[in-house]
Amino acid sequence: MEGALEGVGSVLGLAGRTVFFYIVVLVVIRLMGKREIGTLSPWDLVLTIMLAELAALPIENANVGLLAGAVPILTLLVTQVVVSWLSLKSLGFRNLIAGTPSIVVKDGRIIEPELRRLRYGIDDLMEQLRQKNVPNIHDVEVAVLETNGSLSVIPKSQRRPVYPSDLGISTGYEGLPIPLVNDGRIDYRALSAAGLDLTWLKQELERRGIHDPKEVLYACLDSQGNLFVQEREKPGAPG
């Protein structure tokens, strides 16, 4: 019986440590700022890997105290904040840490010495060009390999999409739609920001045969004042 209780206690302790370091790492990443994984610089990538390792160590080893496990993670946070501040203040320091963008294509010609210096293959270049919907190298005005490994492509003027301004066509303002109902829940702050109230929303839903906002999967208001509403699928309804 005692062995079983010790086993349960060990499992609960491990679960508690896992939750604790999950919260610590989550808070640290939030404080580091918003950055997508695909746009991580080498410094950010190293930092992310180290965070994962430092969080895993005290979770797996019960002999490492919570404070001893949290201190290295918080130290990384302070280091990242300092490095970010120095990067903002010094261009040279930023170039040292993150590197500099490199022009790999100019006026439809591949810059071969730059590819060799970067150890970047032509196959890799063509793959990224295809992902940018520019399969022909002759259509590229400039292609820049960014510090995070992504490729920025500026097509030649004759190969760029035609915009309304090119044709002298004026267009109206198109802002982001305002979500009013999400999975049956009304966003009262968004409703108020749009200058509307619950009575208006219910009237609009009634016009569509919807008697309860909980029946709505998603509803939003565009910049032209048009309301989009999608109902939840009713049980037994065909998919």
From TrEMBL:
Looking at the record, the residues that make up the YetF C-terminal domain are 89-219
InterPro entries attached to this UniProt entry? DUF421, UPF0702_alpha/beta_dom_sf
Membrane-crossing ranges are 12-33, 40-59, 65-88
Keywords attached to this Swiss-Prot or TrEMBL record, sorted alphabetically, are:
Cell membrane, Membrane, Transmembrane, Transmembrane helix
Subcellular location per UniProt equals:
Cell membrane
Q: How does it sit in the membrane?
A: Multi-pass membrane protein
Which Pfam families has this protein been placed in? Answer: DUF421
Which family is this protein grouped under? Belongs to the UPF0702 family.
Q: What is this protein called?
A: DUF421 domain-containing protein
